[in-house]
Write a structure and sequence with these properties.
The protein is an alpha/beta fold. The protein has 4 domains: 11-126, Response regulator (Rossmann fold, 3-Layer(aba) Sandwich), CATH 3.40.50; 149-297, P-loop containing nucleotide triphosphate hydrolases (Rossmann fold, 3-Layer(aba) Sandwich), CATH 3.40.50; 301-370, Helicase, Ruva Protein, domain 3, CATH 1.10.8; 380-433. The protein has helices spanning 19-31, 42-52, 68-78, 93-101, 114-126, 150-162, 179-189, 214-222, 237-251, 274-279, 285-291, 308-320, 328-336, 342-356, 364-401, 405-411, 416-425; strands spanning 11-15, 35-39, 56-60, 84-88, 106-109, 169-172, 197-201, 226-230, 265-270, 294-297, 325-326, 361-362. The strands form 3 sheets. A 5-stranded parallel beta sheet has the order 2-1-3-4-5, with helices on both faces. The chain has a 5-stranded parallel beta sheet with strand order 7-8-9-6-10, sandwiched between helices. A two-stranded parallel ribbon has the order 11-12. Strand 4 (84-88), helix 4 and strand 5 (106-109) form a beta-alpha-beta unit. The longest helix has 38 residues, at 364-401.
Length: 434
């Protein structure tokens, strides 16, 4: 491989407190087409890593201050899918072997030749997919996701690596954070990209039953592609039981005994911690384990505030092209907001400001007013959703226990007095379930 080849643009972070060794490694990697970032300490490496998001890290094991072990632990906690290669002397080989057991991709023993270095880096590159939005031929798959934050880039690395598998996927995250967009990105990156992407809104689903049901029609429509089960936590237990065989078949659909099972990738989204729902008796543990073979977590917008300017610019361009802009004060207000409704709420606020503003620059006063109104609406909607969930949960408990308040209260981890108050608040008579 020569400079300008397939490795062009792939960034490697090299960490060593020996300038001579840094020079040698940089020369070898640059000659093969890689872009190299150098760091002479663990602290500097962390700064470079967060700023540039390399695809591979090469670090010496023994360094003053933060050594290779400590640096790996810090990087692995933030981005576990980025391969780390450790450089070690003969006397520290046992340490390097132990490090691979903790998740280090591999190690090279000094002195090593250039071919050995390039071979190990090539192995690491093979498991570290390109995820940047504007670099490389493969970047179009994530075009619907605007982000450059470290937390999102790590999530996209995980999604890209899992895209071509056939295991079911569970994407969790708050409402409005972009879970469906992530599922669509995985579809676009997969071998099924040319096949359908079908969505079932579980909160609106009338019943998962055999025969000519909405599920049957969705299965037929999604054949060969992706089937998204949106808000899977909304399914009542009886419908979860109907869904379980479908999910299990699709974890093993290539088995000879299941040759007739529809060929598709199943993805589910949830806004609630399903482990708590399992403990509460609201979600089947066997369905959770079947659907969660690949688990991805979409962060709230408040966890990726550095993405807000790029998101705002995207919404502005889609709505008004370059005719309008958001001034520094207004942008600061947007970046400081709580965003309980996440990206969906940000989009709504930006679109409203562009519609209502009369000046070329959106004023901060308008942004603050709309933020206040939007947040109040989001919190009211959240309260309504919580009340609706509580009512459904109580009804399911009483239905399951045959109206036995003592048993239902025990499952809900409430005493009888508290449980009766909950029933009274929702106007529920336990006697009707006996």
């Amino acid at each position: 491989m020569t400079a300008g080849g397939a490795n062009t643009g792939a960034r490697i972070l090299v960490v060593d407190d020996d300038p001579g060794l840094l020079d040698l490694i940089e020369i070898r990697l640059a000659a093969d087409g890689y872009e190299v970032t150098r760091a002479v300490s663990g602290a500097e490496a962390i700064e470079c890593f967060r700023a540039q998001r390399p695809r591979v890290v090469i670090s010496d094991l023994r360094m003053d201050g933060m050594d290779g072990h400590a640096l790996f632990a810090r990087l692995h906690a933030e981005a576990p899918t980025v391969p780390v290669i450790i450089l070690t002397a003969h006397g520290t080989i046992p340490d390097a072997v132990a490090a691979t057991q903790r998740g280090v991709f591999g190690f090279l023993t000094k002195p090593f030749d250039g071919r050995e270095l390039l071979a190990k880096v090539a192995e690491a590159m093979a498991v570290s997919p390109q995820v940047e939005a504007s670099v490389g031929e493969d970047a179009g798959w994530r075009a619907g996701i605007v982000s450059s934050s470290l937390v999102m880039e790590e999530l996209l690395r995980q999604a890209r690596r899992a895209a071509d598998a056939d295991d079911p996927v569970l994407i969790s995250g708050p409402r409005g954070s972009g879970k469906e967009a992530l599922a669509r990105a995985m579809h676009a990156a997969s071998r099924r990209a040319g096949k359908p992407f079908v969505v079932i809104r579980c909160a609106e689903f009338a019943g998962l039953k055999p025969g000519p049901s909405p599920l049957a029609r969705a299965l037929a429509a999604a054949r060969g592609g992706f089937l998204l089960l949106d808000d899977i936590e909304e399914l009542p237990p009886v419908e979860q039981a109907h869904l379980l065989p479908l999910v299990r078949e699709h974890t093993l659909f290539s088995a000879p005994s299941l040759a007739d099972a529809p060929d598709m990738r199943i993805v589910a989204t949830t806004t609630q911690p399903l482990d708590q729902a399992i403990r509460d008796g609201r979600f089947r543990a066997d369905l959770f384990y079947a659907i969660g073979r690949v688990a991805l977590n979409m962060p709230a917008l408040a966890e990726r505030r550095e993405d807000i300017p790029a998101l705002v610019a995207t919404f502005v361009a889609r709505t008004h092209g370059t005719a309008r802009g958001v001034g520094p004060d207004a942008m600061a207000a947007l970046q400081e907001a709580a965003w309980p409704g996440n990206v969906r709420q940000l989009k709504s606020v930006v679109e409203q400001t562009l519609t209502l503003a009369v000046a070329p620059q959106v004023p901060v006063t308008l942004v603050r007013r709309l933020l206040k109104e939007e947040t109040e609406r989001e919190m009211a909607a959240l309260d309504d959703a919580r009340r609706g969930f509580e009512y459904d949960y109580l009804v399911q408990l009483l239905d399951t226990t045959g109206g036995n308040v003592t048993h239902a209260a025990r499952i809900a981890k409430r005493n009888r007095t508290e449980f009766y108050k909950l029933l009274a608040r929702h106007g529920i008579d336990p006697g009707t379930y006996k």
